[in-house]
């Protein structure tokens, strides 16, 4: 059954969009929890600290500047998305 989000879209598109939004919300909650954990580790610069989770471990990284952190994160996310598309 189509919902309000499906106006102008096919039902499968809206279901896909809802699933993506739910996944993004889950990832955001997970990222916030991870940020709280970072603060427990007493990073030298918590505002520039982020983590990269793999199947085996979590890597904590501290960028030298906000701009560097945005670049690093963009490269990591872009690479992960590319890998995911490659595997399909």
TrEMBL record:
Gene3D superfamilies: Pleckstrin-homology domain (PH domain)/Phosphotyrosine-binding domain (PTB). Coiled coil: none annotated. This is PH domain-containing protein. It comes from Goodea atripinnis. The lineage of its organism: Eukaryota, Metazoa, Chordata, Craniata, Vertebrata.
